[in-house]
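Batch job 17 of 40 flagged for manual review because the log was empty.
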Amino acid sequence: HSSLSRNVRLEVEDKLKRGLLKVVVSSTSLELGIDIGYIDLVILLSSPKSVSRLLQRIGRAGHHIRNISKGRIVVVDRDDLVECTVLTKLAVDRKIDNINIPKKPLDVLSQLIVASSLISNIEKEELYNILRNSYNFQDLTNEEYESVIRYLNGELFGLELKNVYSKIRLKEDKLIYPKRGSRMIFFMNSGTIPDEAMIEVITDYGKYVGNLEEEFVEILSPGDIFVLGGRTYEFLSSKGSKVVVKDAAGQRPTVPSWFSEMLPLSYESALEIGKFRRTVAEMLSKGNNKEEIIEWISKEYSISKSASSTIYNYILEQYLFTNGIIPSDKLIMIEIYDDEEGIRNYIFHALFGRRALDALSRALAYALSEDLNIDVKISVTDNGFSLSVSKVSNLDSYNVLRLFDKVKSSNIYDILSKAIMRTEMLKRRFRHCAERSFMILRRYKGRETNLERRELNSEILLNSIKEFPDFPVLKETIREILEDHMDVIRAKEILKKIEGSEIRLVIFGPTTIPSPFSHSIIIKGHSDVVLAEDKRELMKKLHDKVIDFLRQKGVNIDLAYTSV
């Protein structure tokens, strides 16, 4: 894995190439850009989350013109079985996911403008036309271009007071030429890969308890509970390269600890899984018997009859439990589940890729929080998301569909821009964008600048420009979070389809027993405080409740719990 020293990783790769190691267990570190040589078989534990990633990983095996790459996928639960079944079918059919290419990255634009001025003096209008001929900047507006020019020329908001100086000069507001010293700044600070910091964690009484990855810290919000060194802590605040927490012994974590390998399910793959669910649901509603449906799944997706039977049982349980409501690419089911701790969970069963759901869930949580004036906890998985709130007096009469009157395709970008303004993610990503834009220098006069000092400078600068949302570096930070980290473009598509009645919204509940499809979403909240064996027991317990409920309804069902 990437946290191992370079020497150890190279040694492992070399031994594997020479046949001295029979097997290597790896994270995504061996996925890209490495030719190991001859590998017999690649075994994937759980879903790779996209067709391209599936092909890339299995492509590590059989590196010979006459060989066939061979791979096996070990699934871990019933959702995983459905997901992997569809992904392998898509791989065989050569339906590869789309690639997300950033549009109009203003921090990279800053580097391009400075680089162009260093090559030769250039007319502002001529450079604009050149940039517009590229794919990434084809939609670049003149206003956006001018704002970056003004920023690089040092015209915006007196930033020289914050030790941010101009990098270019303009002659008669037409000709761009470099400022003295900008050549050194460009060659020592250009590039797009940010420096990732390890963040110190200290308690509210000053005790050091460990380190967290910066990428993990950026998803935290005040009040979040997480696990570090086997103990739970509540996130309070952060400053620079330090995080302040307080002890939260016995409390359930609200964010998962194992973060770096949480690859999101792609949008296109999610839609195909939704179509598969819808097809099986239609066969059930038309009265096709068990043998017909299992035969179709087995033949169409080239899997065993036992795996097909497990998928059939899983979807049938959901169908019977919800009176025929199966979440799919055309239907979002909003399940209202009141748990044993007195928390109301609005579980949105939506299969549209985790990045799109991340954007949609935050916008809806923002609207829900404003509506009820209470804190909302968000939990996002590949199969949906839940918004959890404490039970209050007016909650039973609250119609959750009101959220879609407030969150529209026309305003979701603005809502999310407001929702992320006070998050850790904005603070961390702003530093990355500021460094790419030469607002904060990683290297100066031949020396590496202190990362902790850069983080503090970043916070000072961010606080000074927050009231100017059109400032190019802040605007790019918001774009990067909403379009690259999340997928606000797909979230807009989902909302447009809801507004156009292409996607139906159906409410199920309130209930005190969660539906089968919601089990993985609920289990996610327990993933840090129970062992794998206990998690299986918890899943079995939830499943047994479903079966008991169906029997009480008079449904003649005898579906034994299946461990895949």
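Reviewer: the log was empty due to a logging misconfiguration, but the result itself is present. Confidence is low (pLDDT under 50) at residues 559-564. Unflagging and moving on to job 18.
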